[in-house]
Amino acid sequence: MGPLVPYLISNEFNLVIALLVGIGFGFVLEQAGFSSTKKLAGLFYGYDFTVLKVFFTAGVTAMIGVLLFGHWGILDLSLIYINPTFLWSALVGGAIMGLGFIIGGFCPGTSICAAAIGKLDAMAFVFGSALGVFAFAESYPLWEDIYLAENWGPVLISEQLNLSKITFAVLLTAVAIAAFYFTHLIENKVTKRQTEVTKNKRNNYAIAGALAFVLIAIVAFSPSKEEMIESRVSSPKRHQEYPFKEVTSDQLAFEIAHNFHQINVIDVRSPEEYESYHLPLAINIPLEEIDDRKWEKIFKQKIKANYFYADHDSVAKKAYLLSNYAGKSANYLLKDSSFDFRKLYSNIEAPVANASKEVMNSYNYRQKLAIDMEKLVEAMSNLNKPVPIKTVAAKGGC
Amino acid sequence: MKPKPYMNPYLAGVLLGLVLLLTIYITGRGLGASGAVKSVVLEMVSNLAPEHTANTAYLKNYAENNPGGPLKDWLFFEVVGVLIGAFLSGVISNRMGLKLERGPKITNRTRIIAAIAGGFLFGLGSQLGRGCTSGSALSGMAVMSFGGIITMLAIFGSGYFFAYFFRKLWL
Predict the structure, then answer these.
(1) How far is A229 from chain B (nearest CA, A)?
(2) How far away is chain B from the Cα of A101, in angstroms, using its nearest Cα?
(3) Three-state secondary structure call for residue A268
(4) What is the pTM of this model?
(5) What is the ipTM of this complex?
(6) Domains, chain A, ranges and CATH?
């Protein structure tokens, strides 16, 4: 699941990615005509709306893509960077940038593009923007109040407008298409030309526009990957029919005592329940946290088997099924609850004197396992502690 | 050879959107431009005048948060890529060459002065607004950031507002 940095792609390799996406970015900007200052200025005088068309199309495409990726579970939307809102600095800074745009005829990205193909005015613009950055750094105390005022954090426009993300996506797409249509009319009027859009092109545009709405509808009406998994892992029918690999308390106790290095015992109850009692060497991953990235390694590894338990069958089974989605580790389910395990292995009561041989045997067996497990817990808890070293003072001799 | 015509704007828009989407998918963040200028400028200043950097809050803050300078900066590498990508595009479409574009009524000198002045304002504004048309407006729109979208509205609103006063530069 994306973003791939820093989980699958290191921060160093990310710089190579930066170079590659930069090449794509620069190539498309130049192909679109953003290296021409006249084309850029045309936006403000109505003779050429290329900038608006490219910009709006790109924004809507990426926005719908982000929604779809999130919906399909390809991209974790809670991890992506949302530009924070500082109301006044955004408005004042934006206004200054707009003034710079109309005077200089470029914005930073387009000026770099144009400079790359040899435009002298673009090189002057880049030089000017370096001076501007320097001036801001030097005069920062003057700006500081505006710069830091009204910090709203990473809020979304949909939240501000009280709309769902989907409604906003529909609105923005509709606005974009309307803007394309009307700017086409304005362009014709200002340039006094009648550029007719060919029938073929018109059809293509209609298909592209419809596709945008279809993709939004997919996000709106089909269940997301998260919802699908949720409904599958909690369906009672599946809990009955799925061939869970189940173990008894005795089997698990044996594994803990003898093969502790090959297994993870996972308590999927709440942290409070875990604190009050848990199986020897168990770790706590509450059910709600299973899809959290910090546990990913436990479910993706194939070296250790995972043993799940809880106090309710449905909770443990859900965790087991969820971990099937998360990774490829071998999973087992403790048939019994933590109470059952506790009854068998904590404070084992010695059987009465005249108990049958069978009862005596199982008592001895469990007693031994309980002691072994206790020793292990003790040993493991000391694992990270410093080894005590006796200080021995040197003794002189004759 | 004649320069080739520009790409269809909607097609270019979709491609640009896909580049942006890919960037967000891989890195979790959008594209940018002014940030690279910032990292180069501030690194230069802190190398030339280390004492001054230590005394200037904004420079000091940046130097502390970006110990590697531009060579560790994602946006710096992205902008190097932009230079390469635009260059390649210029080469295959026959648009290379030292040229200067200006409105019909002004001299080359006026154009250069205006470009420097406009760049100055854009550079300054992008620092105040925490990003330019790429980093704030475009990438912000993709992730529905409120701040990004109002920055975009402010940029273009102000552009239209001032367009009348600077029409001699262009028309």
Answers:
(1) 22
(2) 6
(3) coil
(4) 0.86
(5) 0.96
(6) 11-224 (no CATH), 236-379 (3.40.250.10)
